[in-house]
Amino acid sequence: MKKLLTIVLALVCLTAMLSAAVAEGTMYIPVMAKGFQHQYWQAVYQGAQAAAKDYGVEIYFDGPASETNIDEQVTMLKNEMAKNPAAIALAALSTDSVMTELQECVEKGIPVIGFDSGVPNAPEGSIYATAATNNENAAALAAEKMYEHEGFAEMIAAATPESPVVIAVISQEAVSSSIVGRTTGFVNRMKALCEAVTTVSVTGHDIWKDEKDGAAVVIHVQISATTEATDVATASNAVLNMDNLKAVFLSNEGAVTGFLAATADGSELADGGRYDGLMVAGFDAGASQKNAVRNGWFIGSVTQDPYMIGYYSVELAVKAAKGEAVSDIDTGAQWYDASNIDDEMIAMLVYD
């Protein structure tokens, strides 16, 4: 009996030692976000946690209290680098502020994965891949959903050069890569869809202009004079006064805010309102935009997928740490409308 007890105790000790060894060998990956409290980053966190569970790794997710606290993020990054992680996922508030740390990662062989807006202009070789929204693809989704909306395709097929259908895109600027990408994605996809049945002319801003005589469909790109809400509202009013305006795409929350201001907080889009029947699609998901979607004033909107941003950032980090080849990945986007806005997975993505 004593001998059996000794064997049992030895087995217990061995199991404990093996468990400790496994714990010590667990891959550790810090995920450094631009913030932590905002609902958007909470969704990123949930995705990162899910990937950590699926891949059996340990993560540490953190970000500064405010997205203006650059120094706080740098300190967090330094603290995590001191732990010699297998890899790091980073959404840098400022690339310039972390150049030294990124170069140190290169020297130590620590793979860095960018996520969200990534780490633009980072030192060569420091960023192995980036998990982020492809804005052109996301806005193309809005064009496809609009084209699929009841009556839209029939309206395009019936359009004539004498009474052309006008589809407007309102963007608050034409400088940032995200807004330019969304404008381009919508224009190109809608143009391709409509050109399958008729001639399309693109008017407005020079970046996208492609004017054609005898067009039955006109896609008009309206860029606000500045990003101020009053200027976006002015740009929206200019669009709303266009003849034969049938549909509008708003490329970000700023464009949505200005457009709603120009339509009495959206009420003029309601049944019986001044712009009843106008098909409007948005991008992002602020409180006013969600209200417009719920009320049916917008046919729907596109939201980024922060959950998948978090998931893919960890997945890429694990693969890079194992020496596997990795490349940039489009984390996708989701379409939401009155029918699914309160679904569990969508509700997590439509952050204020």
What's the structural blueprint in terms of helices and strands?
Layout: H1 2-24, E1 28-32, H2 39-55, E2 58-62, H3 70-81, E3 88-90, H4 99-108, E4 112-115, E5 127-132, H5 135-148, H6 152-158, E6 165-171, H7 177-195, E7 200-204, E8 217-223, H8 229-240, E9 245-250, H9 253-262, E10 279-283, H10 287-294, E11 300-304, H11 306-321, E12 329-330, E13 333-336, H12 344-349
Parallel strand pairs: 1-2, 1-3, 3-4, 4-5, 5-12, 6-8, 6-9, 7-8, 9-10, 10-11
Antiparallel strand pairs: 11-13
Helix pairs in contact: 2-11, 5-7, 8-9
Strand content: 15-25%
What is the quaternary state of this protein? Answer: single chain
Going across the biggest sheet, name each strand in turn: 7-8-6-9-10-11-13
- The H-and-E topology, N to C, reads as HEHEHEHEEHHEHEEHEHEHEHEEH
Kindly summarize this structure in a few lines.
This protein is 44% helix and 18% strand. The protein is an alpha/beta fold and 352 residues long. β10 (279-283), α10 and β11 form a beta-alpha-beta unit.
Could you explain the architecture of this structure?
This protein has 352 residues and is an alpha/beta fold. It is 44% helix and 18% strand. The protein has 12 helices and 13 strands. The strands form 2 sheets. A 7-stranded mixed β-sheet has the order 7-8-6-9-10-11-13, sandwiched between helices. It is elongated and about 70 Å long.
Keywords:
alpha/beta; six-stranded parallel sheet; 12 helices; 352 residues; seven-stranded mixed sheet
